[in-house]
Automatic annotation (TrEMBL):
Signal peptide: none annotated. The lineage of its organism: Bacteria, Pseudomonadati, Pseudomonadota, Gammaproteobacteria, Oceanospirillales. InterPro entries: ArsR-like_HTH, HTH_ArsR_DNA-bd_dom, Metal_resp_trans_reg, WH-like_DNA-bd_sf, WH_DNA-bd_sf. It comes from Vreelandella aquamarina. This is HTH arsR-type domain-containing protein. It comes from the Bacteria. It holds the Pfam family HTH_5. One of its GO terms (molecular function) is DNA-binding transcription factor activity.
Length: 125
């Protein structure tokens, strides 16, 4: 029980220390947890993750993403539709083309934090 309380307090401390008045992750509703799990499920696909990382560079057209990642335009469009539905990317129409970018700073920060996390020195393992 002490271990669980320690972990819970560490999580609560982490959620508020680096992001100011962050949402209390321990108080998420069942619905919020389901949305969060679905978001991470979407990010679990390598193609979608590559597309999202590509969108971090700035607004980019579907064709450019497809060419850069060697994927078909229809597959990229499908993935972008899912990512847009999860509010991870936003699209902006310019004449006949839609340019996609990261939806907001939160999405960008999560990706940057996780990239930093996997790059950390693994000597504590």
């Amino acid at each position: 029980m002490t271990f669980r309380k320690t972990i819970s307090s560490d999580i609560a401390q982490c959620s508020t220390s680096s992001h100011g008045a962050a949402t209390d992750v321990l108080a998420l509703s069942q619905s919020d947890v389901a949305v969060l799990a679905e978001t991470f499920r979407l990010l679990g696909d390598q193609s979608r993750l590559k597309i999202l990382l590509h969108c971090m560079r700035g607004s980019v057209a579907v064709g450019d993403i497809a060419d850069s990642l060697d994927l078909s335009q229809s597959l990229v469009s499908h993935h972008l539709r899912l990512l847009r539905g999860a509010r991870l990317v936003r699209g902006e129409r310019q004449s006949k083309h839609i340019f996609y970018g990261i939806a907001d700073q939160h999405v960008s920060q999560v990706l940057q934090d996780m990239a930093s996390h996997i790059s950390e020195d693994r000597s504590d393992d």
